[in-house]
Design brief:
This protein is of the alpha/beta class. It folds into 2 domains: 142 residues, Aspartate Aminotransferase, domain 1, CATH 3.90.1150; 240 residues, Aspartate Aminotransferase, domain 2 (3-Layer(aba) Sandwich), CATH 3.40.640.10. The protein contains 12 helices and 12 strands. The chain has a 7-stranded mixed sheet, sandwiched between helices. A hairpin with a 2-residue loop joins strand 11 and strand 12. It binds pyridoxal-5'-phosphate.
Length: 419
Amino acid sequence: MTSTNTSAPATRAVSPRALTLPDGMPAAAAWTLSPHALHINHGSFGAVPRVAQEHQNALRAEMDADPVAWFSFLPERIGVVRRELAAFVGASPERSAIVPNASAGASVVYSSLPMSQGAEIVVTDHGYGAVTMGAERMARRRGGRVRTAHVPLGATPQQAHDAVMDACTDKTRLIVIDHITSATARFMPVAAISASARERGIVTLVDGAHVPGLYADPLDGIDCDFWVGNLHKFACAPRGTAVLVANSGLRDELYPLIDSWGSPLAFPERFDTQGTLDLTSYLATPTATGFIADTWGWGGARDYMGALADYAENIVATAFSEQTGQDHRVDVGASTNALRLVRLPDGLARTHPEADALRNRVVSEFNVEAAFTSFGGVGYFRLSTHVYNTAADFEEFVERMVPTLCDWARDAVRSAPDL
Ligand SMILES: Cc1ncc(COP(=O)(O)O)c(C=O)c1O
């Protein structure tokens, strides 16, 4: 993956021309997102194009029409799709299993990886909370502990690498590192960390939840032990579809979270059978990825998302600055194409619960589906772009939400003046 941008935040203010469908309709017409809400948070839960929803519905109807035929031949069908999804993320099919989500992929590693008593796990303070909690539970079970590396928000890739490796001790067995971080929308230098870890005999799990769809060959040059990426985020798959890639010989240790009839099989075939479970999301995923490939090409889609994110980041940061007189642009050290941070006015989203409460208030009172995050006691607006977004979405956010958020921030500071 070569597309990281380690330069200062974007200054480009040119809005890209909105994408359309072959019939001239706006790209959003291919989704079923409510026209009564503003959708600028693809990164949290994704959005499924209509054609993939229809395919999944048809698969469900097939399952409900002939359950015995469906479940008898399901593992073979999953095997075919697994190879396609491996190709989509640029991984070898022999090393790729399908799991329901990134959390499940991490749980598979935590529950399967041999760990001696007292072994330690290194995570970072940018890690996804739920995945870090799994690491903590695993460490507790083995009488070990989790060490958290502090990586400053604007750390260069080298500084981030050094912070993680400096947190390792001779007891460290596993490093869990995000490929693209959730709260801070930045890349971590996973290739360099995986290489250093391997030299020291430490296993690496890369949480690439946001990565599939955003980069063409995301695993290129990364020699980690395990990597997991969600297809139901930027690849627009039906929810409940992720790929778990296992590169080292440790793959034979991995078992799905549900023990089923595939257990005697080798990795990854043993993941293709999961008892009586609705796996139609897996089977409909190639329809979602194929739709974007056929309509704009993934390269065209990515170029658009990046250009729109440049524009959005710029106008939102500028709008906050005009209200507060402060600089709201953020240097995240290694930024991504479709996820960006803009600093919120002081007083908002200083903690994770406050950020979630802000998201809930914004969606409840304004029908604006947005992400707010918190890192180091500072609140951020994390914007996402996808092909169905347009410049007008972010202009609307500027007009409707920026003044309101500034008012709420002033209220928060007034009610807690010591902050
Ligand atoms: C970095 C990261 N890891 C893991 C997850 C969890 O994804 P899921 O809920 O699909 O398991 C997310 C979700 O946003 C994420 O951003």
